[in-house]
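FORM 7B - TANDEM STRUCTURE REPORT

SECTION 1: FIRST PROTEIN
SEQUENCE AND TOKENS:
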Amino acid sequence: MKFLSAFLLLSAPAATLSFSTTAAKAPMPQSNTDASGNSVDPLLIRAARGEKTERVPVWMMRQAGRHIKEYRDLCKKYPTFRERSEIPDVAVEVSLQPWRNYQTDGCILFSDILTPLPGMGVEFDIDEKVGPVVKPLKTYDDVKKMHLIDPSTSAPFVAEALRTLRDEVTPETAVLGFVGCPYTLATYLVEGKTSKEYLEIKKMAFTEPKLLHAILKNLAESLGEYALFQIENGAQLIQIFDSWAGHLSPRDYDEFAAPYQKTILEKIKAKYPNVPTVTYIKHSGALIERMASTGVDVVSLDWTVDMAEGRERIAAGRAKAGLEGPGGVQGNLDPGVLFGDFATIKERAEEILKKAGPTGHVMNLGHGIEAATPEENAAYFIETVRNFRHEA
């Protein structure tokens, strides 16, 4: 690949590499171009739209990262996560590793849900052991320091990486973008770091709900702009992660999470109606109908939900909300299955594929792949799905 050759020629140490300053360019087309010059939509995009496809597409959440030896070797040269995700050449190389190794149908940008925060006036760091660290927002004065993002100024490296990925992958491969959702990002802004119980943000929700809503509204407006920025620079699908909304009761989900998910989704659809959207929430079994009712194209299920039941509940949630069609589904193999033998991986993966049915399904894990997963098992999972065919 032309990019890999160029990347391997980089001899400067990480500290001397400059971050991107790429100027804004014309929006990229949403479709790809094949060898004959024809416009084509990747398999994964067609499946996410609910179209009939020749097979089920597959990728893995967190597919780029710690379980791949090439990535761990790269960490020795680029020791911080922000270097690896904000230096375009490095981010592209990490994004391409699982695509090259496994032939996944989606190539997702290697980045983080917190990446847009500095562009909103909120600085953060990622401690390699602790995780994200943010100065907590506690007052209206703190919130007033936030501002609407200009991604072309604050995150040009994202644009450069996405555009390079579109050049590097085959026409059959979809380049995937993503954003965190307002509630999940707010957990970091209020708690100051990763939490187990999320007591600080819940305390704010129940004692100063207007303050929390002010934070969520600011985040939603900027995250919508950030999603559009990714689409305009090459992302062909946007997955929105509200990972920690699964800690909310249904009532609180309806108040503090769903409306702000809708803000992002509606902003995307208003400008790019043909770009598919996906929502993922960890431990979302109690929220599936609510997730579907937001109007998202695809609901990504975690592994605690039976696939057949999940499809029925997604369709029911959409119908209740007056939305057309049954909706799509993504997932949902337990990442722990990839520590089993090949026979177990095949049996569990094919069970999900059969329950999901032949249309509107993007195969994935029910959460991100674990760092200790053997690469050969990840490869076998992808191969199993790529070789599977539904009976006519």
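SECTION 2: SECOND PROTEIN
SEQUENCE AND TOKENS:
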Amino acid sequence: YTAVSPRPPPTLRATCRSRIAPPLGRELAKRRTPMLARSRTLLRPVASHARRPLCTGGKVSPMKTGTELYMSLYPEASSDSGLRLGNITPDFACETTHGHWSSFHAWKKDKWAILFSHPADFTPVCTTEIGRLALKYDELTDLDCLVATLSVDPVKSHEEWLEDVVAHCENEIEVKFPIIGDADRSISTAYGMIDPATSGEQELPLTIRAVFIINPENKLMLSLNYPACVGRNMDEIVRCVKALQLSYQKSIATPANWPNNHADIPLGDGRTTSFKGSVFLLPTVSDEEAAAHYPGYHTCDVPSKKAYLRLVTEEQVKTAPTN
């Protein structure tokens, strides 16, 4: 998507309006939410997009047939109104609990980032999710991954609700990441978290529980959608960040249950445990580059005799070069 506005940079304007309903409490279901003004910034699908070089801000695999070729298989813009994997994510301006942002892309420049939406402030599951995410914040920071959360509540509501979040969490926490106030719902609409045709009429305009993991080039690498009634697992979100970064840096793909995978596999006439936590080479990686960057990689023997299960060990991955 690109955002069309009278002047650069293209943004979505997400502002807190004084007429927005106050924080949702116990009378939540009884209160009618007033019709909200629509964002005046337009989004339009782009049929073609000049492919940009991979960003130098994040470490990326130097293999030409690895990450670079693999990422080229994903279009940078969709041909319709959907936001899909590999697309450049919409930029936006907004108010947050950390102040005003003129550009989401500028805030996360050259870094990995998580955009984490919750349906509404002062609701039970969301309260536990923000608390658990706060416990993972330092680990994500160590991965050089930024975190921002969002709902359609105004910033003032976020600030009041955070006192409940901290008080309820069984661990001592500090919420260090910003929470975006998407009061006019423009961001939620652009990212497909809410239906623009019906959200204005809903008593509870709930965004879905969405997780967007975005790479240093502002491309969407992973999207998770949960209903309002099911809380997310923060350990899995951290695992996904680690897996995506490893793939980006080393031209590999993580198997199911990674890093608890391939604990015992056949090798020759016996079996081995030396491939526990190993990963596969991306399917695009040529045999020549595979041999040059991962000498001695193991190709699993399968009935089809097709050499597509190319395993490299944790140690090989650690020593493989990055740009």
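SECTION 3: OBSERVATIONS ON SECOND PROTEIN
Residues 212 and 223 are 5 Å apart (CA to CA).
The helical segments are 67-72, 104-107, 124-142, 155-168, 186-190, 234-250, 287-293, 314-319.

SECTION 4: SIGNATURE
Preparer initials: ____
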